[in-house]
Structures are given as structure tokens and as C-alpha cells.
Amino acid sequence: MVFRWRDNSIKIVAFLMAVLLWVYVTNEQNPIISRTYQIPLAVQGEPEGYVTSGLPEKVSIRVKSPRNIGAALGVSDFSAKVNLLGIAEGNQQLPVLVTAPPGVEVLQIIPQVVGVLVDKVTQKNVSVTLNIKGEVAQGFLRGEPVLEPTVVTMHGPSKLLAEINKLGVSVDVTGVQDTLIEDVAVQTGVKGVTVSPVRVLVTVPVTLLPAVDLPVHVNLTGEPAEGYSVGQILVEPTYVQVTGPQQVIDTLTAVDSLDVDISGVTEDVEREVWLALPKGAISIQPEQVHIAVRIEPLEKESLPAPAEETGEENSENTNVQ
Known about the structure:
Elements: H1 5-29, E1 32-44, E2 50-53, E3 58-66, H2 67-70, E4 79-83, E5 90-95, E6 97-99, E7 105-110, E8 113-133, E9 140-142, E10 146-148, E11 151-157, H3 158-161, E12 166-172, E13 180-185, E14 194-196, E15 199-204, E16 206-208, E17 211-217, E18 220-221, E19 228-236, E20 239-243, H4 246-249, E21 255-256, E22 260-261, E23 269-274, E24 283-285, E25 288-297, H5 311-320
């Protein structure tokens, strides 16, 4: 069959014009658009007995598609993953693999390559330390706390475990008036590291301290003005209550006031005075007392009266003459 160019040229030109018209109309009615998505990064083929770290949670992709397709797209229509199958321990660089729906072209992946640290999962025993916050109620004594257990087992990447030598827990005893028993969570504070058991039992003994009523001894310093002396010293209240450990209480006989200076005074001294907490004691109630120091003038010494001359002595003197 002989192709007759002249006879078919009109048909060919018409076909090409039709194609161009279709492309033009299509681009006008349904143009190509581009969009950017943030999609989760999944891990595939993670080796058993190993743990990975350093991977970003999401990657950014830029895609293009006809507007009628792109308008219906969402994050869930795409997937991004890294394949760890057969990976070795240590730092690795892996490509990000993105899957897109039909009719959608992936233009860009950020990042295209991600770094991942592959570490062997291991375990390590560490001790638990206790941090006690606050103070028990006044008049009470906190005993030595008890932890159960005192050692826990951590599970996680060997590199992370090497940096942890102990774990701490805290309890608050502020205002406590009885033995505190509390179940406290143990936290590693490191992502990817777990601990077993996850809780420890803390017991903090709290007991009531013994107390004793003791007299107040007023410490006076200096001397009154010349011609005056210290008389009676009054204290209100006369006795105060001292609280402390039994071995301290047993050694006390009185409670001293802070110094009261009476240098050069000529009249009574009255004031509120703070008390000195005995060494080893916990508290004094009240912490202040009212004192009154009487200042008295000294009595002047009387001189002996001169002897009077009698009449008999005068007559004797006369006779002698």
C-alpha cells in the first residue's frame, strides 16, 4: 500500500491540532500543582536485640500532580520508611524511601538520607538513692529512711546505660507527724531506657521527741551604776519546755537567756529576752520570756557617835589640878 502524503496531510495536521487543543484545554481546566507534606518516618526490619536512635520522627516531601488528584491528597496517602534489614551495629546512613499514589510524582525528599545509631540492648544493675525534702513537724524526729529494693535493673542501649550509675527518688516529709510509707516511681529520665521494678517502697520513721520543763537562767552582763546593786530577778514564765533527743534532755538543768546588759543602770530593767537553744535540742517553747531585774540603791554605812564627857571626869580633872 502506498502512503499518499498529500491525501493524508490534512488529516495529520488536524490530528496534531486536536492533540494540542486537548493539552491546552486540560492544562487550563486541570493544571499541574505542587504541594509539600510532613509525613511520619517508619522503621522497617529493625533487628532483634538491638535498638535504634537518632532518626527524625517526620520527613518533608514535595510532590506534583494534576489539580484534581492533588486536591484529594492527604498525609495518610504517602508513606516514608527506612529499611534496617541486615544493618550492622554502630552509626549508619540510610536512604529514605517514599511511596506516593498513582499520578503523583515525588519531586523532593528532605532529608533524603538519615543517620541512625544501632545499639545492642543490654541491662545494668544500679543503686537507688533517696532525696528527702522538707522537715517533719516541730517536736518530732525523723529516723533513718529505708528503701526496698535498694537496687533496680535498667534495660536499654549499652551506650546510654554506660552513662547512668545511680537513680534517685524523692519524698516530701514537710509537716509529717507519723512514720511515712510511700510507693515511689523510679524514673530514668532517658528516652529508650526502662527500669525494673518501676516502683520502690520508701519508709521514713517519724517519732515524737521527749520534752522537759526547765527553769530559765538570766545571763546578766555588766554592773549597775555605783551605789546600786542587783536585787530580785523575775522571769515570766519561770519554766519553758525544751524538746530534743533523750540523751540531750537528760543533760539539761536550765535554759540560758541571751545576754542582758545592765551596765550603769540606776533603775529596774524590764524586757523581752530570747532564749538560747541548748546544743542538740530541737526547740524551746516559748522562745522568748519576759524578765524584770530589780535595781536597788546600796544602804549608806552609819559612823559611830563620838563619846560624851561626863561630870565625874570633869571633877577628876579639877582635882588633879
